[in-house]
Design a protein that fits this description.
Elements: H1 2-28, E1 36-43, H2 47-60, E2 64-71, H3 73-81, E3 88-90, H4 94-102, E4 112-116, E5 119-124, E6 144-147, H5 153-164, H6 168-171, E7 175-178, H7 181-189, E8 195-199, H8 200-204, E9 209-214, E10 224-229, H9 236-246, H10 249-257, E11 261-262
Parallel strand pairs: 1-2, 1-3, 6-7, 6-8
Antiparallel strand pairs: 3-10, 4-10, 4-11, 5-8, 5-9
Helix pairs in contact: 2-10, 3-4
Length: 264
């Protein structure tokens, strides 16, 4: 009789232990996070840096998928105003972000100015270098590419630069306009034009062009890159988190690698 009681007691203790272990396993097992797709509309000059940042971010946030829409800041701003489903906007100028803010489309408290850039004069690598923007008036320079000033920040900055140097009217007949700054870079790479004005980050990304001069920053509007989440985002928490990551030490190192300045 005593033996039966002992066996019953052991069986009860064993069952209790197994229940506790099982309950603990259920309680502490990770819950799979819901997959999130984040749409980021970004200035095309950010392409290389943001692609690298995407890999780093997604490796740390396995449930988040970043989908980029790269174009000129003006075109992206128009898309957003017209109702395009965008979570985060990363512009190459304050002007386009200001428009969205005036339209009350930005999520309050998310706008940050993260980066800076510089304008440079480039020529095809196998062509004679131009060491000054004033060299653009030379007779052998027949075609000069800049981005479209009305919709592309790089074009706006380039036009301001040439105007302040008293060169814009002299060079009007030579100008070829690109839909975005990367198209300007391509025109120079292929030799379709004799020179172009792009961001230093674009020139750095190409082995087919030569930088001849860097524009003094006081001859055009400040080149800044603001970022913000959109009010219409379906993934506000993820959008905020991604913007926060863009300000991290890890992301800043990537931006600097590609030639961007960090806004202080």
């Amino acid at each position: 009789m005593g033996r039966r009681r002992i066996l019953t007691l052991i069986a009860g203790i064993t069952a209790a232990i197994l229940f506790t272990i099982s309950f603990g396993a259920i309680k502490t097992s990770p819950v799979c996070a819901q997959p999130i797709s984040l749409t980021v509309s970004a200035a095309i000059s950010l392409t290389n840096a943001l692609q690298e940042i995407k890999t780093i971010y997604q490796n740390a946030n396995l449930n988040v998928s970043i989908n980029y829409n790269f174009a000129s800041s003006g075109a992206l701003q128009q898309q957003i105003v017209q109702g395009a489903p965008v979570d985060v906007f990363f512009s190459a100028a304050a002007k386009q972000m200001d428009v969205l803010q005036q339209e009350n489309l930005l999520l309050p408290g998310t706008r940050k100015t993260l980066l800076t850039n510089r304008l440079v004069l480039i020529t095809p690598k196998n062509a004679p270098p131009l060491t000054s923007f004033r060299n653009l008036t030379n007779s052998q320079v027949r075609r000069i590419a800049i981005a479209e000033p009305r919709s592309v920040p790089a074009g706006q900055y380039a036009q301001e630069l040439l105007a302040n140097l008293k060169l814009f009217n002299l060079l009007k007949s030579k100008l070829v306009y690109g839909n975005n700054v990367r198209q300007v870079l391509t025109y120079v790479e292929t030799g379709d034009v004799d020179a172009g004005i792009v961001y230093t980050t674009d020139a750095k990304a190409s082995n087919s062009v030569r930088v001849g001069a860097t524009a003094p920053s006081n001859l055009h509007s400040p080149i800044v890159y603001p970022v913000a989440a959109l009010k219409g985002s379906r993934n506000v928490a993820a959008a905020r988190n991604f913007i926060q990551f863009l300000s991290s030490t890890q992301a800043k190192a990537v931006f600097q690698k590609y030639g961007f300045g960090i806004n202080s």
